[in-house]
Amino acid sequence: LTTCIVSNATGLTERFLDEWGHLIDWIGLSIDASNDEIHAEIGRGMRGDLARQRSHHLEQAKQVWASCKQRGIRMKLNTVVSKPNLDDDMTALVLELRPERWKIFEVLPVEGQNDGDVDDLLLDEGEFDTWVERHAWVADEGIQFVPECNELMRGSYAMLDALGRFYSNTEGGHSYGPSILDVGVMRAWEENCFHEDRFHNRGGIYEWKSGVRKLNVINQGGV
Asked: Which of 4-13, 49-58, 103-112, 197-206 bottoms out in mean pLDDT, i.e. has the lowest?
């Protein structure tokens, strides 16, 4: 079993990492810009800071990043490209952090989830590709550069909610199938809409295993 947490860094305290870090293979941290002025404009930060039109997100995320690296946790960087960070250059920051994978997402409208909340963030045709082209050279530095436009994201993730229902965003909103608790995994999966070609095209297959670090801890009575 390989474990991965995607986080905005707020819950990854030293206490949490001390207690659970040995059981975590990967952490994906969300950082959308090279400075916190842009994060404040996007709305990435703590509610109290954002109410004052400021953010300390990058500062906090970099501290958490260092703590995770010290514990041997493999790191992914997640960035959402939108209007406020369209002209930003994140290459210096990325080369400083040196994630194994850098996933680039186009801001995604989801019907019934963020209606009206993302209109000012949405990109015009070609803008995402321009941003990607400007940053793609980090791949020459050994960083896996994984851009995902909206078309590739839709229907290419196997998503399961708290009720045990597979759900898909292929049609723009979330459509839910029966719970695996009621019909079993195979039947529930058969009713889910999943595009395997998009999964492969967005780099869904990669070397994600982290060896025997967790197994050794378990064998030593660490959990």
From this structure: 197-206
Show the 3-state SS of 18-77: HHHHHHCCEEEEECCCCCHHHHHHHCCCCHHHHHCCCCCHHHHHHHHHHHHHHCCCEEEE
Alpha-helical (H) ranges within the chain are 14-20, 36-42, 47-51, 57-70, 91-97, 127-135, 150-153, 180-183, 185-190, 196-201, 213-219
Looking at the chain, the domain(s) classified CATH 3.30.750.200 span 4-156+196-219
pTM for the full model?
0.81
Identify the residue whose tokens are 């793609």.
136
CATH of domain 4-156+196-219: 3.30.750.200
Cβ atoms of 77 and 28 within 8 Å: the answer is: yes
Distance CA 203, CA 147 (A): 9
Token digits for 119? 């209109």
Q: What sign has the CA pseudo-torsion 202, 205, 211, 213?
A: positive
3-state percent helix, strand, coil for the chain, nearest multiple of 5: 40, 20, 40
